[in-house]
Amino acid sequence: MLAEDRFLEHTDKQLRLDPLKEFVGLVRRMDTDTLPNMPVFLSCESVFKDNFWQLKKMVPGLRDKNAYSFDFSLLKDHPKLLFQTKVIVYLWLNFEDRTKISSKATRFGKFKSALNFLIEQRAECLSELQQPMLLNEYFEQLAAADESVSTIRQKLIALKKASHFDTLLPFQVGLRDLPLKETLRRVSHKRQQQTLVIPPRLMTCIYSESVALIEEAFSVKDELSFIKQQELTIYNDAKEKIEQKIESGIWKWLQPSRFTSKTAHQKTVTEEISREARIGRKKLYESAIKQLSIRRFNINSYADWLEYKRQLMNASLLVTQAFSGMRSSELLSIEIGDWFSTERDGETIYKVRADSYKFIAGGVKKATFVVAPVVFSALELAKALTESERSTLKYNELPYQNHLWLSQNKLSRVPVPVRNRGLNSRYNNLVRHINAEIEPGDLEELNIVNPGASMKLSVGQLWHITSHQLRRTMAVYLRRHDLASAHDIMYQYKHLSLTMALHYANGATDAALNNYKPPTRVPEEGVIAYWEAKTFSSQSTLEESAKLLGHEHSCSLITNCMHARACNSGILSSSTLSKELKHWAQERLQVIRDQRDQADNNALNQHFIQIENVLMKLLAEKE
């Protein structure tokens, strides 16, 4: 149901040309007949008067209901604040595009910090927060809290977003023009830090061992699937046998009436089923599991077999995310049949479809990711390993029947999807198995690929991995080795802006420059200027240089300016030094000087001076 349809249904049935204006009119009139019974979003069951809005059913394939709920219960004793907050959240949900619902729910959670503060101050209206004394006190409260820069930033953004519709409403939060960076510096004494990039040696260690586990298991995936199906059969047979003994009265001691609670009874029944299945599992281990052609994992017991299965799933998840750059939510949404290949110019391109919630107004859509071939092996292996879980779900007519990433720690439990919050634990479990410890060279590399990061790491410590590290590591690796442009990363990562893609790849340029050793002697022919090594020390300054030096007569010059080796070696060269090139340099020199005069910080001013010196050297050269 569209927004227009919703207003047609819940107002006086006459045509409304502007749903936003119509809703604002209802708010201004305090229409107590229409507002309370309006659905809060599309055709969901929650209505405006409810103090708990649940949008779970509005998003297909949703796995975390809390990410799509809005709880206003803390405001139940403050009717004016409650009404105003509901109005703002309703406007966020229905009239703010390009932000997924879960992000709006997270934003509301951060906005509750300000709401709790207003309640403590006995405020009656949101507009009271813009009073200087009250606002400063709130900022002091944020500064005193032991929270990350990112959390504080999200709370400040929530205030600005709450003020977005001020000009339309009969009340104003009044903080739309809050200077975010300045306020963040004032409130937070901590430095915001990007997610770490995994150092190359550790990345190779973790990734290569994960790929090796997958490739070996892939060769016997049918046998693995068969063994898992046999495990399920053994368990079901044991369960049926125990239940018959209970129902027939043979085991009177296991009757429900003999136990103090249903939970205690079920626990004992589960233990008896497991004991009954032990013989079958032992036979399965001897006849099938021990016969597997596995060399990369020691399977000397049934417990080892259980650990092996877990690590195969962990490796499949890690490889899929590491070689696709997917967000965790996108990774975990993959279903059976979502991977396919296409042919282009005689080459096979491997692709995976996944649910994208980012910047989708009102829900979800399938997005396509280009992946490495090994990802297909990981997905096919995961499919084989979870076939028994899907058959259980299908038999019981339960959801997630086409879901790929399923988890079932015990056969007595119903299979459930792998959760986002469990990914980091899985990955670190795999790192412990691989024994990926930090070495001295890793710490040096860390400072290069993570410029400005504050790290408390030591030699001999296991690397602590997170799902977001995989995403950022791929971006830096691709840019470091010039395997993809920033625009390629923007497309693959489903970023809205090029700036975000460059942010992810931060550190790639420094890493590319690090290992280059400039020649001690260079041919004099073609050398037109020299500068300090690493003058252009980051991707952003390189790009700014490209803009400043951009001209049709300077193609060879720009090529060298943007080339990592030229920047590092301090050599600016061109095949020819023509009058046109000198004329161009004279024009650029004036532009650079103008830019230098307008520079708003000393670092940028020094950067312009360096470029100016290079151009002056060029002009001094003889043709």
Large-scale geometry: globular
| Ends distance | 71 Å
Evaluate the radius of gyration: 31 Å
Largest sheet: 3 strands, antiparallel
Strand content: 5-15%
Instruction: Give the number of DSSP strands.
Output: 9
Structural class: mainly alpha
Overall pLDDT score: 79
Number of helical stretches of at least 4 residues:
25
Can you list the strand order of the major beta sheet? 3-4-5
Uncertain stretches: 1-17, 516-543, 545-577
Which key phrases capture this entry?
623 residues; mainly alpha; 3-stranded antiparallel sheet; two-stranded antiparallel sheet; globular
Descriptive report:
It is built from 25 helices and 9 strands. The chain is mainly alpha-helical and 623 residues long. A hairpin with an 8-residue loop joins β6 and β7. α6 (149-162) crosses α7 (180-187), α11 (302-322) crosses α15 (423-434) and α18 (486-492) packs across α19. The longest helix has 28 residues, at 221-248. The chain is globular. Residues 1-17, 516-543 and 545-577 have low confidence and may be disordered.
